[in-house]
């Protein structure tokens, strides 16, 4: 027998749950459905959000023949066969939609095979992918389609899916499930309607007399509570971005939340420890120079202790960095210096600060007129220059008025102004 997720696939817009941003009144796909118009597109979103269902509904409403290809199993031969069939439909006056599931698995040559047939109208292309099309699809294909981003279903939408499924099953046999258990199932499904229906089907198969109680639910969902995390794609980078920005935004609670999310998803804590070290330098900087040492110590503690004790050291460093004063002055100064170096030629080192290890070097004036700072008043040779002569004096580092950089800024203003006080 077909799984519940397949037998209950919505055939009408009224049965479809979620994606209000695309299917609400006046939205592009809603208009395409209502007007029976079809255009080439890529549906991008997490599993179980309705990509295949939506593709079928759009094709049916437009009166188009529907051909399905799997990029996991198919190749150029299958693409040619689909195009041949579409050409026969076209000769008979019928449109054809070619739906490609997991389209990101097709290589460049396979993706290119669709281009002339999209261009001349032989097919309407509908791709479905869980991966970011900007990274996984070639530009030639992307220029011929419109990308629609589907979102993970919220709890209310998943409860609606579960309610609809229970009502359908109840036509054939008596079933019952308390509202709080339906909400619990929606939480475990984590935005995935297919997962919700598969777990519901399992629960119903375990239920005595069709009653899904708490004990049955526990058996059905055991081991199923897995959050979305892909260890190398969008979810991964979105979450590390959220963690980094939470620390930068001085929110230790959010930083701990995203740290826990990433650990729960299976992220290697070493990767996070490396990011913590970067944050210490990029976002805290000299506003609190201790942050760099704390980040290094946390990484070393993790290396020595491992999980779960070592994870606490990383958490401690994250909280410290989130609460520390922030400055990206060094980060900005370094980027400015690097940009200037790359934009210019190889300006020579001024003679007075060149190395002079030999008599020949000294005869050429290397080191001549260099003032040794330790022999100067206050340990600072005021007015001595260090940049290439053609470049002139530059100021990259501008300390902010936060934390330790308040004192650093005051000192630099004195030194850059001609030097009073100790260097």
CATH class of the largest domain: Alpha Beta
Helix-and-strand structural type: alpha/beta
> What is the CA-atom radius of gyration, in angstroms?
31 Å
What's the number of helices?
Answer: 21
Largest beta sheet: what is the strand line-up?
Answer: 2-3-4-1-5
The fraction of residues in strands falls at 5-15%
Main beta sheet strand tally, sense and closure? 5 strands, parallel
Number of domains: 4
Task: Give the topology.
Blueprint: H1 4-7, H2 20-23, H3 28-35, E1 41-44, H4 51-61, E2 65-70, H5 76-91, E3 96-101, H6 108-112, H7 115-119, E4 124-129, H8 133-136, H9 139-142, E5 146-149, H10 155-170, E6 176-177, H11 179-189, H12 193-206, E7 211-212, H13 214-221, H14 234-248, H15 252-264, H16 269-284, H17 290-305, H18 309-323, H19 329-343, H20 359-363, H21 405-416
Parallel strand pairs: 1-4, 1-5, 2-3, 3-4, 6-7
Helix pairs in contact: 10-11, 10-12, 11-12, 12-13, 14-15, 14-16, 15-18, 16-17, 16-18, 17-18
Question: Could you walk me through the main structural features you see in this protein, from its secondary elements to its overall organization?
Answer:
The protein has 423 residues and is of the alpha/beta class. It has a five-stranded parallel β-sheet with strand order 2-3-4-1-5, with helices on both faces. Strands 6-7 form a two-stranded parallel sheet. It contains 21 helices and seven strands. The protein folds into four domains: 19-149, P-loop containing nucleotide triphosphate hydrolases (Rossmann fold, 3-Layer(aba) Sandwich), CATH 3.40.50.300; 155-221, Helicase, Ruva Protein, domain 3 (Orthogonal Bundle), CATH 1.10.8; 234-323, Zinc Finger, Delta Prime, domain 3, CATH 1.20.272; 347-416, post-AAA+ oligomerization domain-like (Orthogonal Bundle). The model has no long low-confidence stretch (mean pLDDT 91). The protein has helices at 4-7, 20-23, 28-35, 51-61, 76-91, 108-112, 115-119, 133-136, 139-142, 155-170, 179-189, 193-206, 214-221, 234-248, 252-264, 269-284, 290-305, 309-323, 329-343, 359-363, 405-416; strands at residues 41-44, 65-70, 96-101, 124-129, 146-149, 176-177, 211-212. The protein is elongated. Strand 2, helix 5 and strand 3 (96-101) form a beta-alpha-beta unit. The longest helix is centred in the N-terminal third of the chain and has 16 residues, at 76-91. 51% of the residues lie in helices and 7% in strands.
């Amino acid at each position: 027998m077909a799984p519940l997720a397949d037998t209950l696939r919505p055939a009408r817009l009224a049965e479809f749950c979620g994606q209000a941003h695309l299917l609400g009144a006046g939205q592009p796909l809603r208009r395409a459905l209502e007007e029976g118009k079809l255009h080439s597109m890529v549906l991008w979103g997490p599993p179980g959000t309705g990509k295949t269902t939506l593709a079928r509904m759009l094709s049916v409403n437009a009166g188009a023949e529907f051909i399905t290809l799997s990029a996991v199993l198919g190749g150029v031969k299958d693409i040619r066969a689909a195009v041949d069939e579409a050409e026969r439909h076209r000769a008979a006056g019928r449109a054809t939609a070619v739906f490609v599931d997991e389209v990101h698995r097709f290589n460049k040559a396979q993706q290119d095979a669709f281009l002339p047939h999209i261009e001349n109208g032989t097919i309407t292309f509908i791709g479905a992918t869980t991966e970011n099309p900007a990274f996984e699809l070639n530009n030639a294909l992307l220029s011929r389609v419109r990308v629609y981003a589907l979102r993970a279903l919220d709890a209310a939408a998943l409860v609606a899916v579960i309610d609809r499924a229970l009502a359908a099953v109840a036509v054939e046999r008596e079933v019952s499930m308390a509202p709080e258990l339906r909400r619990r199932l929606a939480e475990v499904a984590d935005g995935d309607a297919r997962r919700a229906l598969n777990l519901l089907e399992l629960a119903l198969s375990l239920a005595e007399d069709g009653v899904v109680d708490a004990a049955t639910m526990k058996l059905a969902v055991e081991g199923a509570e897995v959050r979305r995390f892909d260890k190398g794609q969008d979810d991964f980078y979105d979450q590390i971005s959220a963690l980094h920005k939470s620390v930068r935004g001085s929110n230790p609670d959010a930083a701990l939340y995203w740290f826990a999310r990433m650990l729960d998803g299976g992220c290697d804590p070493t990767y996070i420890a490396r990011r913590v070290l970067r944050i210490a330098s990029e976002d805290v900087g000299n506003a609190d120079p201790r942050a760099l040492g704390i980040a290094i110590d946390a990484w070393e503690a993790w290396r020595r202790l491992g999980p779960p004790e070592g994870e606490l050291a990383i958490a401690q460093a994250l909280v410290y960095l989130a609460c520390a004063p922030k400055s990206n002055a060094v980060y900005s100064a370094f980027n400015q210096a690097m940009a200037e170096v790359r934009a210019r030629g190889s300006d020579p080192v001024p003679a007075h600060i060149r190395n002079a290890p030999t008599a020949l070097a000294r005869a050429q004036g290397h080191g001549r007129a260099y003032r040794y700072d330790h022999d100067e008043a206050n340990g600072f040779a005021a007015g001595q220059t260090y940049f290439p002569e053609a470049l002139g004096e530059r100021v990259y580092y501008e300390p902010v008025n936060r934390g330790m950089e308040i004192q650093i800024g005051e000192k630099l203003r004195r030194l850059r102004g001609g030097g009073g006080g100790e260097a």
